Amino acid sequence: MDDFSIIGKNVPYTDAKEKITGKAIYAADFRLPTMLHGKILRSPYPSAKIVHIDTTKAERLPGVHSIATAFNTPGTKFGPTKSDERLFAKERVHYIGDDVAAVAAIDVDTAKEALGLIEVEYEILPAVFDPFEAMQPNAPIVHEDMETNVCHHIELHRGDIQRGFDEAFVIHEERYYLQHQYQAYIETNGATAAWQGDRLTVWAPIQTARILATVICDAFGIPRGSFRFLQTYIGGGFGGKAYQRVCLITAALARVAGAPVQIILDREEDMESTLPRVPMFIDLKMGVTKEGYITAKDAKIVADNGAYTAMGVVVVDTASTRVDSLYRLSNVHVIADLVYTNKVPTGMFRGFGNPQAHFAVESMMDTLAEKLGIDSAEIRLKNATRTGDVTVHGWKIDSCGLSDSIRVAAKASGWVEKRGKQKEKARGIGMACGLHVSGNRAIAPAGDGASSQVRIHEDGSVHVATSEGDIGQGANTIFAQIAAEVLSVPYDTVYVDPLDTDVTYFGVGAGASRVTMMGGNAVKAGALAARERLIDAAADRWECKRSDIVLVKGILVNQITEAEMTIGEAATHYIGMTGGSRLMGEGFFRAEGVVVPDKTKYGNISLAYSFATHVAEVEVDLETGQVEILKMTAAHDSGRVINPRAFEGQVEGGLAMGIWYGVGEQLVFDKGRVLNPTFTDYKVPTIRDIPKLEVHIVGKEDPNGPFGAKSVGEMAMVPTAPAIANAIYDAIGIRFTELPITPEKILKAIEERRKNGSFQR
C-alpha cells in the first residue's frame, strides 16, 4: 500500500469554519455600493402573443430606478446548446414563467410592487403540454420560427439488433416513465452584476463558469476578455446551477440601470422557472439467452424538453448511450426525441440523464432474471463490464470494480438470506447497478482539460487557483490535499482561492463529474511544477546539484551536506534569484485518448468511469401504501478515495436524493402551470426520512486519475431508484414502471390485483 501523508486521510473541508460560523458569503449575502435590487415579471400564460407592454406606472413609483424589457436590451438569440432563447420575450411567451420584464429598485419590496404596475396585453395562443401530442403534425408549434417541436433527434445502431433478438431465449418489452424532479437546493438561484463601460462582472453561485461566459458573451455581443466571473459560496447545486438565466437577466438590468443590480429568486419562482430534471418516456425491449447473457437492447426515448433547450440535448444523448456501457452489449438500437412543450425548460440534474436510463434498464434486468428463473445478482455478474473492455460505444474501461461492487453489496446486505424470503412481512430487497463518467469530453468539445496555479509564499503557505470551482462537494478540499501531498507540506498551510476568471486559466467547471479527475490532475501538475522550482532555488543557494536535494515534510534537505531550508526560505530566495518572480507552478492537464464522439456517438468520451451497486431494503404497509426504506447498502468503485469522509458524505447525499426520486419527488403540472412550487407541497426528505446507510469502497486506483481517483458525486444517486423499485417488487410482487412510486399508486395497484384475484394478502 502506498504511504501517503494526506491522500486517503479524513481532513476537514477547507471552508468548514466559514460555513459553520456563518461567515461564508453566499449570493444573497453579497453587497456592492449603490447596488439596486431586481425582480422579474414573468408570463402568466404558457403560450401567448405580447400585444403591448406599458411600464409607465411602474417607472413613476418612488424607489424604482430602471426597467428592462426586450425593447431596451439586446435581442440576440443564445443558449448553451441551441440558440432558442432571448433575454426577454418580445413578440411571444412560451411558458408560464417566461421572462417579460425586470425592475431595478432601491429594495426588493419596491421592485415587487413595481411588477404589479407593469401592464402587459396578451393574446392567448394554443399551447401543447404533452410531448407525444407535440410531435403530431397538427400540434401547435412552440417556437414559431421552427417547423417542428422535435428540437433534437438521434438514432444509433450498433451490431445487428434483429440477429440479437433472434438469438434471445427470453424477450421483454416495457414502457417506463421518469418525472420532473426539482434540485431542491437550499439556496435559490441568484446573481449580482455590474458594468464598467463595456466590461461586465458577475458574482453568482454558478457551477460552470465556462458555460456562463459563452452564453453571456453571445447574448451581449462582448468579447470574452470583457467578462469577469467570481464564484460565490454555493448552497447546493446538483446541476441546477450549471446554467442560470437569472445571471443574464441581472446583467441586462444592470446595464439599463447603469448601476450594480442583484436578483435573488424566491423559492416559488425558482421552482417555476429554473431547470428541473428532464422527464422521459422510455420504451425498452431487451433479449437474453437461456443462460442470462444479454443479446439485444432496443430503446425509444421521448423526452419533454419544455420551452427552451438549455442542456436538454446533452441530457438526452446521455440517456441514449451511457447505460449501454454498464454491461457487455453487442447489439444496440436507440431512437430518441427531445420535444418542445409549453412548460418550464428542463436541464442538468445530478446524474445527467443517467438515472432515467438506469431506472429502465435495471428494472428490466430484474424482470429478465425472474423470467429465466435466475438470481438478479447473478444476471448482473454474468453481463458486467470488466477492466480492459472496449464497450459497444467505444468506451475504454481502464479500471472497473463493478463485479466487486455487486459481490460486496450483496454480502453486506444479506442478499442471499433475504431475497424473496420476507413476503409475509411485505418486506423486500432489491439491487441495481450503475456507471458514470469521470469527466465527459462532450460537454467541452472545444477541448476538455483543466489548469492550475500553485503559488508558494515567503512564509511557506501555499495558494492554489483553478477555474473548476467548489460547489459544496469539497473540490477545494481535494485540491488542497493533492497539493499538500505533492509538496509534502501540512494540509492546513494550503489555501484554495475562490474562482475568479480574471486570475485563473482554462477550466470547464463542475459538470460531468469531472472536477476531481481533470482539476485534480491539473493541481497535481501545478504542484509538481512548483516543487521543481523549489529545488531550483535550493540548488542555486547551496550551489549544488538538483539531484542532491529532497523535500521532506516541507523542508528541503541537501543530502550531501545535510543543510536544511524551509520552502518559505526557498520561495524568498527564488524571488531574488529571478529578479522578482513569484515562485509559482503552472499545471495543465489534457485528457489524452478522450474524444468528442462522432455523429454516431461512438468514441471514448471520458478518461475513466465509476461503477456502483446499491441494495435497498423496504417494507410496504399494505393498508396505507407507505414504503419504508429500512436500509440502503452502497458499494462504490471510485478508484482511490482521496478523502474517505467526504466520499461517504457524497454517497450518502446521493442516496437520500435517489430515494426521494424513487418514492416522493415530482413537479406536478396542470396546463403548463406548476401546482406544487413550494416546499409545503413539494416534499423533500428530512433527517427523519433517511434510513440506515452503509457505504463500502471497492475497486482499485485508476491509472488516469490523480493518485488513482475517480468520480463519485453523480454516480451516488444513479442506481438508487431502481434498487428501491426492485425491492418493492420483491416485497409485494407488483412491478412499478413509473416514478415516483407513491402510496396512492401502490394502493391502486393492490386494489386492482385483489379484484382480479392475483393479490391474496
Features:
alpha+beta, globular, 3 domains, Aldehyde Oxidoreductase, domain 4, seven-stranded mixed sheet, 19 helices, Aldehyde Oxidoreductase, domain 3, single chain, five-stranded mixed sheet, 28 strands
Provide a descriptive summary of the structure in words.
- By secondary structure, the protein is of the alpha+beta class.
- The chain folds into three domains: 150 residues, 2-Layer Sandwich (Aldehyde Oxidoreductase, domain 4), CATH 3.30.365.10; 179 residues, Aldehyde Oxidoreductase, domain 3; 320 residues, Aldehyde oxidase/xanthine dehydrogenase, molybdopterin binding domain (Aldehyde Oxidoreductase, domain 4).
- The protein is 28% helix and 24% strand.
- The strands form seven sheets. The protein has a seven-stranded mixed beta sheet with strand order 3-5-1-12-9-10-11. It has a five-stranded mixed beta sheet with strand order 7-15-14-13-8.
- Helix 10 packs parallel to helix 18.
- The longest helix is centred in the last third of the chain and has 28 residues.
- It is globular.
- The mean pLDDT is 95.
